[in-house]
Amino acid sequence: MIECICIDADNKPKEIPFNKWLKEGGKYNVIFTCTVLPQKVLAFQLAEIELTDAELPYEYFSSHRFAFTEENLLKLIELIKDCEDIDFSMDELLKQTELEPIKI
């Protein structure tokens, strides 16, 4: 699991109920990554929210909604490599993902 923070909870689809939607500033844990089609966008499955058939066509959360520390971004890159069906460049990932400043 890779910890991240939600930075964009706008535009909730009507198919997803409020109790299964993101909270801006909320901490979440990425457990799976994939590229969703036809958009060809990196997306995440989260440990905290289980999207079911009731939320179709939504199965994952877009990566642009989250920020990572530099350390967790490196872990995310490893997770992406471990997920079988990823056809996604690391350059594109870095364009879609923001770093979260580390608070000391």
Description of the molecule:
It is a single chain. With 104 residues, the chain is an alpha+beta fold. It has one domain. It has 2 helices and 6 strands; from the N terminus they run E-E-E-E-E-H-H-E. It has a 6-stranded mixed beta sheet with strand order 4-3-2-1-5-6, with helices on one face. Strand 2 and strand 3 form a beta hairpin. The longest helix has 13 residues. It is globular, with a radius of gyration of 13 Å.
Distance between the termini: 22 Å
Total domain modules: 1
Overall outline = globular
Quaternary structure annotation: single chain
The tally of beta strands, per DSSP, is: 6
Low-confidence stretches: none
| Strand-residue proportion | 25-35%
Strand order of the largest sheet: 4-3-2-1-5-6
Radius of gyration: 13 Å
Mean pLDDT, nearest integer?
A: 85
By helix and strand content, what is the structural category?
alpha+beta
- The proportion of residues forming helix, as a percent range, comes to 10-25%
Order of helices and strands: EEEEEHHE
Largest sheet: number of strands, sense, barrel closure: 6 strands, mixed
**SS summary, helix count:** 2
